[in-house]
Write a structure and sequence with these properties.
binds calcium ion, alpha/beta, five-stranded parallel beta sheet, 9 helices
Amino acid sequence: MRILLVEDECDLGLSIKKSLEQSNYLVDFVMDGEEAWNYLETNSQQYTLAIFDWLLPSLSGIQLLQRLRSKGNTLPVLMLTAKDTMQDKIMGLDAGADDYLVKPFGMAELLARLRALQRRSPALNNQQMCYGDLTLDYNTYTVTWKKQVISLTAKEFQLLEYFMKHPGQILTRDQILDHLWTWDSETISNVVAAQVRLLRKKLAIYGADHWIETVYGLGYRFTSAKAQQ
Ligand code: CA
Protein backbone atom coordinates (compact mmCIF):
# COMPACT_ATOMS: atom_id res chain seq x y z
CA MET A 1 0.00 0.00 0.00
CA ARG A 2 1.31 3.37 -1.02
CA ILE A 3 1.07 6.54 1.06
CA LEU A 4 1.66 10.15 0.06
CA LEU A 5 3.30 11.97 2.96
CA VAL A 6 3.38 15.77 2.77
CA GLU A 7 5.50 17.31 5.52
CA ASP A 8 7.89 20.24 5.27
CA GLU A 9 9.95 19.42 8.35
CA CYS A 10 12.57 17.22 6.75
CA ASP A 11 13.70 15.28 9.84
CA LEU A 12 10.16 14.57 10.97
CA GLY A 13 9.12 13.56 7.45
CA LEU A 14 12.05 11.18 7.10
CA SER A 15 11.37 9.58 10.46
CA ILE A 16 7.67 9.09 9.63
CA LYS A 17 8.64 7.65 6.24
CA LYS A 18 11.02 5.22 7.90
CA SER A 19 8.40 4.04 10.39
CA LEU A 20 5.79 3.61 7.68
CA GLU A 21 8.21 1.64 5.55
CA GLN A 22 8.94 -0.63 8.50
CA SER A 23 5.19 -1.26 8.58
CA ASN A 24 5.27 -2.33 4.93
CA TYR A 25 3.89 0.85 3.39
CA LEU A 26 5.48 2.38 0.32
CA VAL A 27 5.93 6.10 0.94
CA ASP A 28 6.28 9.06 -1.40
CA PHE A 29 7.53 11.89 0.80
CA VAL A 30 7.20 15.47 -0.46
CA MET A 31 7.81 18.75 1.35
CA ASP A 32 5.80 21.25 -0.68
CA GLY A 33 2.05 21.64 -1.29
CA GLU A 34 2.18 22.19 -5.05
CA GLU A 35 4.59 19.32 -5.50
CA ALA A 36 2.18 17.14 -3.53
CA TRP A 37 -0.58 18.22 -5.87
CA ASN A 38 1.51 17.14 -8.87
CA TYR A 39 1.94 13.70 -7.31
CA LEU A 40 -1.79 13.46 -6.65
CA GLU A 41 -2.76 14.58 -10.13
CA THR A 42 -0.46 12.23 -11.95
CA ASN A 43 -0.50 9.30 -9.57
CA SER A 44 -3.64 9.42 -7.42
CA GLN A 45 -4.85 5.91 -8.28
CA GLN A 46 -1.70 4.48 -6.76
CA TYR A 47 -2.27 5.90 -3.30
CA THR A 48 -4.08 4.09 -0.53
CA LEU A 49 -3.83 6.92 2.01
CA ALA A 50 -2.34 10.39 2.40
CA ILE A 51 -0.92 12.34 5.34
CA PHE A 52 -0.97 16.13 5.06
CA ASP A 53 0.74 18.63 7.29
CA TRP A 54 -1.22 21.92 7.48
CA LEU A 55 1.44 24.63 7.15
CA LEU A 56 3.38 23.95 3.98
CA PRO A 57 5.19 25.99 1.35
CA SER A 58 3.19 27.09 -1.73
CA LEU A 59 -0.11 25.37 -0.88
CA SER A 60 -1.34 24.55 2.62
CA GLY A 61 -2.56 21.11 3.64
CA ILE A 62 -6.09 22.54 3.86
CA GLN A 63 -5.91 23.99 0.34
CA LEU A 64 -4.52 20.70 -0.91
CA LEU A 65 -7.39 18.85 0.72
CA GLN A 66 -10.00 21.25 -0.66
CA ARG A 67 -8.55 20.96 -4.14
CA LEU A 68 -8.53 17.17 -3.91
CA ARG A 69 -12.13 16.98 -2.71
CA SER A 70 -13.32 19.52 -5.30
CA LYS A 71 -12.15 17.03 -7.95
CA GLY A 72 -14.29 14.35 -6.35
CA ASN A 73 -11.25 12.44 -5.08
CA THR A 74 -12.09 10.43 -1.93
CA LEU A 75 -8.55 9.32 -1.03
CA PRO A 76 -8.46 8.89 2.78
CA VAL A 77 -6.45 11.78 4.25
CA LEU A 78 -5.11 12.21 7.76
CA MET A 79 -4.15 15.75 8.80
CA LEU A 80 -1.00 15.77 10.92
CA THR A 81 -0.43 19.21 12.32
CA ALA A 82 0.65 21.36 15.23
CA LYS A 83 -2.58 23.36 14.90
CA ASP A 84 -4.41 22.10 17.92
CA THR A 85 -7.43 24.29 18.69
CA MET A 86 -10.95 22.98 18.35
CA GLN A 87 -11.52 25.46 15.51
CA ASP A 88 -8.50 24.10 13.65
CA LYS A 89 -9.75 20.55 14.00
CA ILE A 90 -13.22 21.51 12.82
CA MET A 91 -11.75 23.34 9.84
CA GLY A 92 -9.55 20.37 8.91
CA LEU A 93 -12.37 17.86 9.15
CA ASP A 94 -14.80 20.14 7.32
CA ALA A 95 -12.26 20.60 4.53
CA GLY A 96 -12.48 16.85 3.96
CA ALA A 97 -9.91 15.25 6.26
CA ASP A 98 -10.84 11.75 7.41
CA ASP A 99 -8.81 12.01 10.59
CA TYR A 100 -6.85 14.65 12.49
CA LEU A 101 -3.79 14.05 14.64
CA VAL A 102 -2.03 16.80 16.59
CA LYS A 103 1.76 17.10 16.86
CA PRO A 104 3.59 16.01 18.90
CA PHE A 105 2.24 12.54 18.42
CA GLY A 106 3.33 8.95 19.04
CA MET A 107 4.27 6.95 15.97
CA ALA A 108 2.30 3.96 17.29
CA GLU A 109 -0.83 6.12 17.40
CA LEU A 110 -0.26 7.37 13.85
CA LEU A 111 0.09 3.78 12.62
CA ALA A 112 -3.05 2.71 14.49
CA ARG A 113 -5.01 5.60 12.98
CA LEU A 114 -3.82 4.69 9.49
CA ARG A 115 -4.94 1.10 10.05
CA ALA A 116 -8.32 2.41 11.21
CA LEU A 117 -8.61 4.57 8.08
CA GLN A 118 -7.84 1.53 5.96
CA ARG A 119 -10.56 -0.48 7.71
CA ARG A 120 -13.14 2.27 7.27
CA SER A 121 -12.44 2.85 3.62
CA PRO A 122 -14.89 0.79 1.54
CA ALA A 123 -12.28 0.34 -1.15
CA LEU A 124 -9.74 -0.95 1.35
CA ASN A 125 -11.72 -2.95 3.82
CA ASN A 126 -11.05 -6.24 2.16
CA GLN A 127 -8.23 -7.36 4.39
CA GLN A 128 -7.38 -10.46 2.44
CA MET A 129 -6.73 -11.23 -1.17
CA CYS A 130 -7.05 -14.80 -2.38
CA TYR A 131 -6.01 -16.46 -5.58
CA GLY A 132 -6.61 -20.18 -5.66
CA ASP A 133 -5.05 -21.55 -2.49
CA LEU A 134 -2.83 -18.53 -2.13
CA THR A 135 -3.96 -15.97 0.46
CA LEU A 136 -2.43 -12.61 1.18
CA ASP A 137 -3.46 -11.09 4.51
CA TYR A 138 -3.12 -7.33 5.04
CA ASN A 139 -3.69 -7.48 8.79
CA THR A 140 -0.72 -9.69 9.46
CA TYR A 141 1.23 -9.10 6.25
CA THR A 142 1.52 -12.80 5.71
CA VAL A 143 1.07 -14.95 2.65
CA THR A 144 -0.14 -18.53 2.94
CA TRP A 145 -0.23 -21.29 0.37
CA LYS A 146 -2.43 -24.25 1.32
CA LYS A 147 -2.22 -23.00 4.91
CA GLN A 148 1.59 -22.95 4.96
CA VAL A 149 3.03 -19.52 5.71
CA ILE A 150 5.38 -18.24 3.03
CA SER A 151 7.86 -15.95 4.72
CA LEU A 152 8.42 -12.85 2.55
CA THR A 153 10.20 -9.53 2.94
CA ALA A 154 8.14 -6.34 2.58
CA LYS A 155 9.25 -5.89 -1.01
CA GLU A 156 8.54 -9.51 -1.93
CA PHE A 157 5.09 -9.14 -0.34
CA GLN A 158 4.40 -5.99 -2.39
CA LEU A 159 5.59 -7.66 -5.58
CA LEU A 160 3.44 -10.74 -5.03
CA GLU A 161 0.47 -8.51 -4.18
CA TYR A 162 0.94 -6.62 -7.43
CA PHE A 163 1.09 -9.86 -9.41
CA MET A 164 -1.98 -11.24 -7.63
CA LYS A 165 -3.95 -8.11 -8.51
CA HIS A 166 -3.16 -8.66 -12.19
CA PRO A 167 -3.32 -12.40 -12.80
CA GLY A 168 -2.68 -13.45 -16.38
CA GLN A 169 -1.57 -9.96 -17.39
CA ILE A 170 1.86 -9.12 -18.67
CA LEU A 171 3.40 -6.55 -16.32
CA THR A 172 6.32 -4.68 -17.80
CA ARG A 173 9.48 -3.91 -15.91
CA ASP A 174 8.56 -0.20 -15.95
CA GLN A 175 5.09 -0.86 -14.54
CA ILE A 176 6.60 -2.89 -11.71
CA LEU A 177 9.24 -0.23 -11.07
CA ASP A 178 6.61 2.54 -10.94
CA HIS A 179 4.38 0.55 -8.66
CA LEU A 180 6.91 -0.81 -6.21
CA TRP A 181 9.57 1.79 -5.87
CA THR A 182 9.11 5.38 -4.79
CA TRP A 183 10.33 8.17 -7.00
CA ASP A 184 13.22 8.96 -4.75
CA SER A 185 14.50 5.40 -4.64
CA GLU A 186 17.89 4.96 -6.15
CA THR A 187 16.79 2.11 -8.29
CA ILE A 188 19.13 0.42 -10.65
CA SER A 189 18.04 -0.92 -13.99
CA ASN A 190 17.97 -4.58 -13.01
CA VAL A 191 16.25 -4.13 -9.65
CA VAL A 192 12.98 -5.62 -10.91
CA ALA A 193 14.67 -8.72 -12.29
CA ALA A 194 16.58 -9.10 -9.03
CA GLN A 195 13.43 -8.78 -6.94
CA VAL A 196 11.51 -11.25 -9.11
CA ARG A 197 14.41 -13.67 -8.71
CA LEU A 198 14.24 -13.35 -4.92
CA LEU A 199 10.49 -13.90 -4.86
CA ARG A 200 10.76 -16.93 -7.14
CA LYS A 201 13.40 -18.37 -4.86
CA LYS A 202 10.99 -18.14 -1.92
CA LEU A 203 8.16 -19.62 -3.95
CA ALA A 204 10.45 -22.43 -5.14
CA ILE A 205 10.42 -23.78 -1.59
CA TYR A 206 6.75 -24.58 -2.22
CA GLY A 207 7.38 -25.82 -5.74
CA ALA A 208 5.76 -22.68 -7.05
CA ASP A 209 8.54 -20.69 -8.67
CA HIS A 210 6.88 -21.17 -12.07
CA TRP A 211 3.88 -19.03 -11.01
CA ILE A 212 5.77 -16.02 -12.26
CA GLU A 213 6.57 -16.47 -15.88
CA THR A 214 9.10 -14.37 -17.77
CA VAL A 215 7.67 -13.07 -21.03
CA TYR A 216 10.84 -12.34 -22.93
CA GLY A 217 11.20 -8.77 -24.11
CA LEU A 218 7.95 -7.75 -22.41
CA GLY A 219 7.93 -8.46 -18.70
CA TYR A 220 6.38 -10.98 -16.32
CA ARG A 221 3.08 -12.77 -15.96
CA PHE A 222 1.57 -14.37 -12.86
CA THR A 223 -0.46 -17.38 -13.91
CA SER A 224 -0.15 -20.74 -12.37
CA ALA A 225 -1.25 -20.51 -8.75
CA LYS A 226 -4.88 -21.09 -9.68
CA ALA A 227 -4.28 -23.59 -12.43
CA GLN A 228 -2.53 -25.82 -9.92
CA GLN A 229 -5.62 -26.46 -7.82
CA1 CA B 1 4.70 22.43 8.49
